[in-house]
Design brief:
With 197 residues, the chain is α/β, with parallel strands linked by helices. It is built from eight helices and five strands; from the N terminus they run H-H-E-E-E-H-E-H-E-H-H-H-H.
Length: 197
């Protein structure tokens, strides 16, 4: 990906497609957040040992996310499921949020990303990651950041608590452009040349 993406961009970013618009590179991914507790290390005053509740309920809420590493921006959408319709809704939301931009969105090979029924807005082009390569997607690291900062050692009595936590944590992260850049603007991404050829 690191080596092939410049060639892909060169082929994709033609003047007749870009039409003079600013080019925005985004990395997209979905995640699920639920009531199963993520046990993490924590502090307790000596000599006490920390006590953390645990929960095993397999209920989940889903989030679509797209990071623009160069701008330090995060687009996100909480939804009840992950499927082609919700992916299309997320793409429409991103398109409307950045109407002046031509967006190259890097996605994984999920079936909803390649479905014939997927409606992709005119100002977005999807590019697939190589199979089994989540380490190339900086959006994965933003999910880790949300889980680490908003969800550690928390037990939720219902899904409404999970949604409230997402509704508070996602805007908090999205408002911190420097933190998003520090997590997602990897050297090989920053070095890409984003211009119409």
């Amino acid at each position: 990906m690191e080596k092939k993406l410049p060639a892909v961009l060169e082929t994709l970013l033609t003047p007749d497609v870009v039409k003079g618009r600013p080019i925005r590179l985004m990395f997209q991914d979905e995640a699920r957040f639920g009531r199963m507790v993520r046990i993490q290390r924590c502090w307790a005053p000596a000599p006490q040992r920390p006590v953390v509740d645990n929960g095993y309920e397999r209920e989940f809420q889903y989030v679509y996310g797209g990071v623009s590493p160069l701008e330090g921006e995060l687009d996100w959408m909480i939804c009840p499921a992950m499927n082609t319709d919700w992916m299309g809704t997320f793409l429409a939301q991103v398109s409307a949020a950045h109407p002046e931009d031509f967006i190259v969105m890097v996605v994984d090979g999920a079936s909803s990303h390649v479905a014939k029924a997927l409606v992709v807005p005119e100002n977005i082009r999807l590019h697939r990651l190589p199979p089994y390569s989540p380490e190339l997607n900086p959006q994965e690291h933003l999910w880790d950041e949300i889980r680490e900062k908003e969800f550690p050692n928390r037990v939720f009595s219902d899904m409404a608590g999970v949604v409230r936590t997402l509704e508070a944590g996602l805007p908090r992260l999205a408002s911190d452009r420097e933190r998003i850049r520090s997590i997602s603007a990897w050297p090989w991404i920053v070095s890409l040349i984003l211009k119409a050829n």
